[in-house]
């Protein structure tokens, strides 16, 4: 019996499972998914759950129901690449062994050494943290004040969604650049800035958050009192991955071979936010990488040779939302603003939820 162990049921882990099941694997191959929750979560929509505009159940997708798939519920404590064993936090659980390992444990917030940021801000990096953030944001007193630290895609989407959810709030976005969404074209950035300005969302550019205290942050050492602070100012690899004795980049992501494997551990693969790749982390990238990893594992199990060079992963672009009616995007070099990108994003989400597998 050949055992494939997939750590994390996120976009990459789920995609690999789906593709392996469709690759006509031999009967003596089993797939085990380890995840803390009994369903796949739509992380790209966590901002809506946090803002209170989507329900918890709307962000759940069932894992594949197949006799070849076993789901183990728990949190990973340690990965031993030498002995091919994975230990869970549950001390009563036996260690899991594998012939092929896929690490897709995702990311955590990156606090850039800002004192208090890890203790006194809200997060949307996991379903558990997003649920807590929902409670905090929706319990903010009437006419309260909320700060979003980070003007990237996540910060912009949660600020916009929160504005539609809570028209009474004062909402501020603190971004260290000269404009929010700095990697995008100026036409797109201008549209989003104007959208926020017209809806009384304050944009604080060239911010430098030096400290966070309970209900306070310090921008250039100036104290600002707040009712809630949401941190969206960067990510880093899961601490379990950062602890691995392998070569990693400054974000703690693992450097990989051309076949997405860990050097010197050719049976261990890394997918998604924990993989050091020349692209910005995204669900789309995790799925594209997952397609290739599934093909590689399937080929090895079947005794087939691997191609000398894998095809280039083609990413279609990015779509972002500004509430339920407006959005923005970058698709194949074309900038999209207004209602069209929002409709496209809703369509992509519907397709994903209803046509998995």
TrEMBL record:
UniProt keyword annotation of Kinase present: no
Record keywords, A-Z: FAD, Flavoprotein, Oxidoreductase
Record keyword DNA damage present: no
Cofactor field: FAD
Gene3D superfamilies registered for this protein in UniProt: 3.50.50.100
Residue span(s) of domain FAD/NAD(P)-binding: 3-285
Source taxon at top rank: Bacteria
Protein family according to the UniProt entry: Belongs to the NADH dehydrogenase family.
UniProt protein name: NADH dehydrogenase
């Amino acid at each position: 019996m050949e055992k494939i162990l997939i750590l994390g049921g996120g976009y990459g882990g789920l995609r690999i499972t789906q593709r392996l099941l469709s690759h006509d694997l031999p009967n003596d191959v089993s797939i085990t998914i380890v995840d803390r929750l009994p369903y796949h979560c739509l992380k790209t929509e966590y901002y809506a759950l946090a803002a209170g505009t989507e329900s918890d159940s709307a962000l759940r997708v069932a894992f594949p129901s197949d006799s070849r798939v076993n789901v183990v519920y728990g949190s990973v404590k340690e990965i031993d690449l030498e002995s091919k064993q994975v230990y869970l936090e549950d001390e009563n659980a036996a260690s899991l062994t594998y012939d092929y390992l896929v690490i897709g444990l995702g990311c955590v917030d990156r606090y850039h050494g800002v004192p208090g940021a890890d203790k006194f801000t809200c997060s949307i990096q996991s379903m558990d943290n997003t649920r807590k953030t929902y409670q905090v944001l929706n319990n903010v007193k009437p006419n309260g004040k909320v700060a979003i630290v980070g003007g990237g895609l996540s910060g912009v989407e949660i600020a916009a969604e929160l504005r539609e959810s809570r028209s009474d709030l004062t909402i501020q976005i603190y971004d260290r650049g000269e404009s929010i969404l700095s990697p995008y074209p100026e036409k797109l950035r201008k549209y989003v800035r104007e959208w926020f300005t017209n809806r009384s969302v304050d944009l604080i550019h060239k911010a430098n958050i030096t400290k966070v205290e309970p209900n306070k942050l310090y921008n250039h050492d100036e104290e600002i009192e707040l009712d809630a602070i949401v941190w969206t100012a960067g990510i880093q690899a899961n601490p379990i991955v950062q602890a691995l004795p392998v070569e990693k980049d400054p974000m703690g992501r693992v450097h990989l071979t051309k076949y997405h494997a860990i050097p010197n551990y050719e049976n261990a693969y890394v997918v998604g936010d924990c993989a050091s790749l020349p692209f910005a982390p995204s669900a789309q990238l995790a799925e594209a990488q997952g397609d290739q990893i599934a093909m590689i594992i399937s080929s090895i199990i079947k005794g087939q040779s691997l191609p000398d060079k894998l095809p280039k992963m083609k990413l279609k672009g990015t779509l972002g939302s500004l509430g339920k009616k407006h959005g923005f995007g970058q698709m194949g070099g074309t900038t999209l603003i207004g209602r069209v990108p929002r409709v496209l994003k809703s369509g992509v989400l519907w397709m994903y939820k209803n046509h998995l597998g």
